[in-house]
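Hi R.,

Here's the chain you asked about this morning:
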Amino acid sequence: MSGERWLIACWLCLAPCVQALDLRESWDLMQLQGPTYLSAGHERDAALENRAIGQSGLLPKIGITAFDNHINGTQKQPDFYGNSHTNDLNYASRGATLQLRQPLFNKQKMAEYRQGQYQAEYGVAVFDGKAQDAAVKLAGRYFDVLLAHETVALASAKLKSFNEQVASTQRRKDLGDGTVTDVDEAAARRDLAQAELIEAEDSVTVARRLLQEYLGQTPDEIATLQDNFPTPPLQPDNLQEWIIRAGTDSPSIRARRLNVNTADEEVAKAKAGHWPTLDLVLGYTAADSETLSTQNQRNRYTSAGVELNIPLYSGGYVSARARQSVATRDQAEEDLNATREEIISGTTREFRGVQSGEARIHALEKAVKSSERSLESSKKGFLAGTSTNVDILNAQEQIYTARRDLFEAKLRYLMAKLRLAADVGALGDDDIASANAYLGPKLSF
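And the predicted structure, written out as C-alpha cells:
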C-alpha cells in the first residue's frame, strides 16, 4: 500500500469516531478499497504496458538454440570396384547457437510501436472517464441513501399526522360533531401512509446496499443536507463555452479519438504486409560431433549478415486484412462522432439542469411555505365550517409532497453540477469538496 493510501486508511479509521461519513470521505474510501475504482486502475496499468510491448518490436531479439542428438543407423556406400558396403552409424552431435536479430527496416513493427503509444494513452483516457463516472455514480448512490432516509422521515411524520387526524375525527364523531365519512377518509389516508412508510424503509435498505458496492463497506452514519442551500451561478454561464470544453477535454471523446489513431496504425500495419523487411543477424555457434571419418570434431564459428525477406503472395491475406482494418477504422471514426454528439447532448442537459434546478429549488421552497399556510387555513376553516376534513387531509399530503420534492430538487441540483463537470473532464477533488460543503447533519441507521 502506498504512503498516501496508508494515510487515507488511517484517517478513515479514525474519522467515524468523531463525525459521520460524508461525500468527500466516501470518495477517498472508494479510491482506497472500492472494487469498481480499483478495477479501473488495474485496467489502466495493463494498458500502459502497451508502450513497452510496441517498442519491443524495434529492439534486438537474442536467443539461444541448443541441440543434443544421437545418430544410430546404417549407411550404404559403394567402393572403387562398385561393391556396396554397409557401415554402422553410431555417434553423437551436440551444440548451441546464440543469435541476435535486429530489425533494420520493418514497417509493421514501426506501426506497432506507434500503436502501442496510442493504446497506452487510450488506457489513461478510459481510466479518467471511468474514475469520473465512478465519482458521479458514487454521489448518486450516496444521495439516493439521503433521499430514501428523508422519505422515511417524511412518511413517518405523515403517518403520525394522519393518526392524529383519525383520532381527532373519531373524537368529533363520538361527540356528535363528526361523521363516519370523516373517520373513514382519515383512516384511508393513514393506511396509505403506512404502506408508503414500508416501501420507503425497503428503499433505504436497498440504497445502502448499492452504496456498499462502491465503498466496500456500509457506513453506520452519513452526513445529510444542511438547511442552508446556496445556489451560485455557473462559471462560465455560457453553454457554448461548456460545449467547447467538453469537445476538447472530455475523457470519452479523448479515448475515442485515440481509438481512431490506433485504428489508423492498424491499417498501416496491415498494408505493410506487402513491404519487405530487413534484419541484421549476428550469430555464434559451438558444436561437437562425430562422424564415420572424424572423431570429436569441434566447430566454433561466428556469423554476421543481413537478411532480406520479400513477401510475394500470401493467398490474399494481406489485402483482406487491409480492407478489414480500413472498415474498422471507419467504424472508430463514426463511434467518435456519436460520442461527441452524446457528450454535447449530456453537457446541454446538465447545464440546463443546473440553471433550472436553481429556479426549481426556490419555487419549491415557496411551495413548502405556502403548503404550511394552506394547512393552517384549512384547519381554521374547518372550525369555522368553511373547509372539510378532506381539505385538511389534502393540505397535509401536499406539505409532505412539497418537502420531499424540495429535498430531491436539491440533490438533483448537486448531481447536475457533478455530471456537468464530468462531461467536460473536469470532475475532481474540488468538485467533490464543493458538493460536500452542502452536507453537515448526520444520519444514523
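Strands lie at 61-78, 84-105, 221-225, 277-289, 297-309, 439-444.

Let me know if you need anything else.
M.
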